[in-house]
Amino acid sequence: MIELKDIYKVYGMGEVDVVALDGVNLKIKRGELVSIMGASGSGKSTLLHILGCLDSATQGAYLLEGNDVTHLADRELSRIRNQHFGFVFQSYNLLPNMTALENVEEPLVYANVAKRERRKRAAIQLERVGLGDRLNHFPSQLSGGQQQRVAVARALVNEPTLLLADEPTGNLNTEAGDALLTILSELHTEGMSIVMVTHDPHVASLAERQILLEDGQVTKDAPLTER
Amino acid sequence: MIELKDIYKVYGMGEVDVVALDGVNLKIKRGELVSIMGASGSGKSTLLHILGCLDSATQGAYLLEGNDVTHLADRELSRIRNQHFGFVFQSYNLLPNMTALENVEEPLVYANVAKRERRKRAAIQLERVGLGDRLNHFPSQLSGGQQQRVAVARALVNEPTLLLADEPTGNLNTEAGDALLTILSELHTEGMSIVMVTHDPHVASLAERQILLEDGQVTKDAPLTER
Ligand SMILES: Nc1ncnc2c1ncn2[C@@H]1O[C@H](COP(=O)(O)OP(=O)(O)OP(=O)(O)O)[C@@H](O)[C@H]1O
Ligand SMILES: Nc1ncnc2c1ncn2[C@@H]1O[C@H](COP(=O)(O)OP(=O)(O)OP(=O)(O)O)[C@@H](O)[C@H]1O
Ligand SMILES: [Mg+2]
Ligand SMILES: [Mg+2]
């Protein structure tokens, strides 16, 4: 489904470049549940952004369903993302001037879904993450964990085939975190591919395959059963 | 040192009010290390904001070193905060147009410390949290965990007597999280009072006293040794 070939991502910082990804080779099959762990600053979010076509590599190739998408125009990448990917950002990236409901509707606006249907689907996802009574709150009127759950609802509303989640339980207590993992588990059983960056070994144990990133390189990539 | 008496915090949301704190009574002694845990949305961040004089209660009294600060003017509260409190926000609240170094210098600017001394002290704190090589990065050029560590460095630079930290290890892997807890431990040994909101039982186990918040009420408040 996805193949990253010899991916480098370098940030030019004047005198000193930061090599965030230092030669990454990775294949992700349809329907896989993969976790990515690694130290703070090791390149996890950068890798997720490249996988989600949100950022382009400095060097290397990205093949999506066999098609080279490495050099596609922004507009085409945007369309692919909207149709196939769901993204939960490490800092949620909610629009501050829109309510929880409007934030979750947003991917459906892009996909030209009619208003009534959008409202309905967005409300369903918010109910699912336990925020049915917070639809009209603005992000600043929500707790950290609630904002995180709105971000999850938004990532799921377009029924993506691939979910890319960056620390999806980072601001959730055990109970809310487990509730979220149950949702992800169900979606995985229904066929969704999931790539999750996490620091939580509990979350990582949900994955069938665990990747370890160290200084921009994949140093471990193994099925969970081998441990 | 701190006493909260019958604190209520209610957010008016039109037809339905949100009672974030529902009658909280709490005393914190000088030099204590307290952890606050609770479900997502239970009122932890709200409680921390009130303790840090960043927000005023709807009802109830706040006594700081025996003085009623409940109705102080913003400017006076600001001065008290800058002199005595260090705050690590759940969403870091870094200024996007300032570098890591400048962000950490900021409380010292408010305190009228000379530029050379500010730079020196800010650099020391950033070194301490392992970001000595990221001084001139802007927040958008830092990983999530790096931004979190800049927020910690900023909270400590003015040598506060009380540190209020909201999920200080939420975006840190075990290694970086433990490094942070070691720093907090040392500061505590040197006399700092610390109130930490956390979902991580590992972090909570550092505390000598654990508070549980449920739906805006303190339902447990016990020394760690009693468990
Ligand atoms: N400005 C606001 N207006 C309205 N409601 C608010 C506002 N800020 C917070 N709330 C609500 O108050 C409750 C408590 O929020 P708070 O941020 O204190 O929770 P929390 O315990 O820190 O949660 P988390 O673990 O998810 O960070 C939540 O239900 C939230 O929706
Ligand atoms: N725009 C940028 N410009 C310069 N350096 C950057 C930029 N974005 C990230 N970096 C650097 O690239 C490295 C990898 O960042 P990344 O966000 O991928 O780490 P991470 O593994 O997600 O860390 P964390 O666990 O703390 O979230 C970090 O050292 C960071 O400082
Ligand atoms: Mg990250
Ligand atoms: Mg909170």
Protein architecture, described:
- Two copies of one chain form a homodimer.
- By secondary structure, the first copy, chain A, is an alpha/beta fold.
- In chain A, the strands form two sheets. Chain A has a six-stranded mixed beta sheet with strand order 6-7-8-3-9-10.
- In chain A, a hairpin with a 2-residue loop joins strand 9 and strand 10.
- The model of chain A has no long low-confidence stretch (mean pLDDT 94).
- At the A-B interface, helix 5 and helix 6 of A face helix 5 and helix 6 of B.
- The complex binds adenosine-5'-triphosphate (ATP) (2 copies) and magnesium ion (2 copies).
Specify the helix fraction band of chain A: 25-40%
Work out the number of β strands of chain A: 10
Pick out the low-confidence regions of chain A.
none
Strand order of the largest sheet of chain A: 6-7-8-3-9-10
Main beta sheet of chain A: strand number and arrangement? 6 strands, mixed
Radius of gyration of chain A: 17 Å
Distance between the termini of chain A: 25 Å
Shape of chain A: globular
The fraction of residues in strands of chain A falls at 25-35%
Mean pLDDT of chain A: 94
SSE pattern of chain A = EEEHEEHEHHHEHEHEE
Bound molecules: adenosine-5'-triphosphate, magnesium ion
Q: Looking at the chains present, what oligomeric state does this protein adopt?
A: homodimer
